[in-house]
Amino acid sequence: MTNVAVCGSTGSIGTQTLEVIETEAGPWRVSALGVNSSVDAVVEQAHRVRPDVVAVAAPEAAAGLAARLPAGTELLVGPNAMAEAAQRADVVVNGVVGFAGLSVTLATLEAGKRLALANKESLIAAGPVVQRARLTPGAELVPVDSEHCAIHQCLRANNERARLDRIVLTASGGPFRGRSRSELSEVTVEAALAHPTWSMGPKITIDSSTLMNKGLEVIEANELFGRVAGPDAHDLGIDDIEVVVHPQSIVHSMVEFSDGATIAQLSLPDMRLPIGYALAHPDRITTPFGRIDWAETGRLDFEPPDYESFPCLGLAYEAGRAGETAPAALNAANEVAVEAFLDGRIRWIVIPDVLKVVLDGHDGSRASDVDAVLAVDAWARREASSFIEGLN
Ligand SMILES: NC(=O)c1ccc[n+]([C@@H]2O[C@H](COP(=O)([O-])OP(=O)(O)OC[C@H]3O[C@@H](n4cnc5c(N)ncnc54)[C@H](OP(=O)(O)O)[C@@H]3O)[C@@H](O)[C@H]2O)c1
Question: Rounded to the nearest whole angstrom, what is the distance from the C-alpha of residue 201 to the centroid of ligand 1?
């Protein structure tokens, strides 16, 4: 059996991972569950899957928890608990939201294990550090983000990397596609949370509404498939990664070769497919979780993104071009801004202003090690918070 640690098990990715493992008669058993503070939900999950370990990041949430877990399940508590649980597994699904997922990403790769990565923020914020960890013998990173899973599949089917010219990331466009900047000045939290094609956690749903999610994915694609060291190395830069809006979310991304031939991956918008792909790779799961009905689909539309209404996308390219710790600054500012929007402290339209102020003040320092990344993350959070306080 393959022992799988599901980090962020109570979230959208985590619960769907458990569903894939429970549905597919695969070789997997859930050996660890990791959460921040949702203890009632993790107790229910633990009685269902009987893991070896439950890891809880927030100590204040864990009081009295050990007695509620099944016999034989160990409880680990604190900020390093999930990383420790990850190191004991064979495969780790990182479904933690935000920069908090960095310790799991690094612990898994440094232990030479397979990382099924949904937590894009860790790769984006700490790109150079994660790239070094990927060089650990046995370490393997299989993306769970649907676009990167699609690119992974396209490249695997056509492994002619020297002839690869362009990566095209598709974007649904989010709930505000087609709106002008002036029409977006007073959008509500409820409207921003109403994603047209995907059902996801609140942070990534807001990122999708601002197109920040696509911007983060451009940086993620550059780290995974761009000009980097490691097994996925080849010669593409961030400006060879293009975004196209595709409202039906059927084409999950494409690769284009030197002769103009384009290979795309298509499936229904359902995260259980990329989760199953990352678990089973290089095999495939046998449960389809939905098939495309071509008569029903009718048409597939494509249009360019609107950089004026959605400035976060352009800011992400800017941070991606600067590299080193600039993406860490962008990511931290975005996490602070999204939280402030969800709490009603800033308007949706102000989110890109927060990112711009922080990026403009960033000193261009190198991501020489994890401490350098943590320092920029902390600095950017302070800058973003003080800018937001100054607005009110
Ligand atoms: N949802 C999707 O369809 C989707 C698609 C592509 C990529 N992703 C990426 O996958 C990641 C997870 O997204 P999601 O939508 O599943 O998020 P979510 O539904 O909000 O779930 C987040 C999970 O992370 C845990 N968590 C939160 N803060 C934590 C902390 N400080 N330390 C440890 N664990 C913490 C939560 O535990 P508690 O319940 O205890 O708070 C929860 O289990 C994100 O990076 C997102 O960009 C998601």
Answer: 7
